[in-house]
Amino acid sequence: MFTGIIEEIGRIKAIKKGTKSSVLTFEGQIIFEDLKLGDSVAVNGVCLTVTSFSKNTFTADVMHETLNRSNLGNLIRGGRVNMERAIAADGRFGGHIVSGHIDGTGKITEIKKDDNAIWYTILAKQTITKYIVEKGSVAIDGISLTVAKVEKESFQVSIIPHTAANTQLGEKKQGETVNLENDIIGKYIEKFISPKEEHGITMDFLRQAGF
């Protein structure tokens, strides 16, 4: 589990492409302080497992499903990515619950400066925007952000200079793709109240329970 608070911007050192999968090697500094084999690292919000590592590099296997759902397939050697280690049990929970399981991608349709803030408008499918609520949380390329406005097929976030300087989002251009992960709480609630579920919480159940 992650918090969406990016620890550092890393670089892609190597890409080895298979028929439908890839083996990616990343380099950095901060996250290698206590990195171990089998650890989880969120790269642009995608939870990857460390399969090998050295002093300042680690390698991860990326399967076909992950390449289809995320922007990792668009990465190039030398490119920069957001990196965050899984949260320790005694760590501070500074963002929100981020699983590292991407729901899909969005496209940046507008970037606009507003004094010291930067506004991003993200185009996304309704299957993603239906879980996004104003003033709620969303992870964009692994960054925990607050939603400022949401519409049927788009939403907006505003970032401060610190976020722009310390994450890869500050380098993104209009038209580029970002990974999106919805707040997991909304998805669980939907499943619990879905009338299609045999043991779901239905309106009849609530009425019988006195609600």
Q: Kindly, what is the distance between the CA atoms of the first and last residues, rounded to a whole number of angstroms?
A: 34 Å
Question: Briefly, what CATH class of the largest domain?
Answer: Mainly Beta
Number of domains: 2
Query: According to CATH, what is the topology of the largest domain?
Result: Elongation Factor Tu (Ef-tu), domain 3
Tertiary shape: globular
**Helix content estimate:** 10-25%
The total strand number stands at: 13
> Under the CATH scheme, which architecture of the largest domain would be assigned?
Beta Barrel
The share of residues in extended strands comes to: 35-45%
Question: Looking across the biggest beta sheet, what order are the strands in?
Answer: 4-3-7-1-2-6-5
Helix and strand element order:
EEEEEEHEEEHEEEHEHH
What integer is the average pLDDT?
Answer: 92
Number of helices: 5
Structural class: alpha+beta
> What would you report as the Rg, rounded to the nearest angstrom?
18 Å
- Give the low-pLDDT segments: none
**Largest beta sheet, briefly?**
7 strands, antiparallel
Q: Can you characterise this structure?
A:
This protein has 211 residues and is an alpha+beta fold. It has 2 domains: 8-85, Elongation Factor Tu (Ef-tu), domain 3, CATH 2.40.30.20; 104-190, Elongation Factor Tu (Ef-tu), domain 3. Helices cover 15% and strands 38% of the residues. The protein is built from 5 helices and 13 strands. It has a 7-stranded antiparallel beta sheet. Strand 1 (8-17) and strand 2 (22-27) form a beta hairpin. The radius of gyration is 18 Å and the shape is globular. The chain starts with 7 loop residues before the first strand and ends with a helix. 30% of the residues are buried. The mean pLDDT is 92.
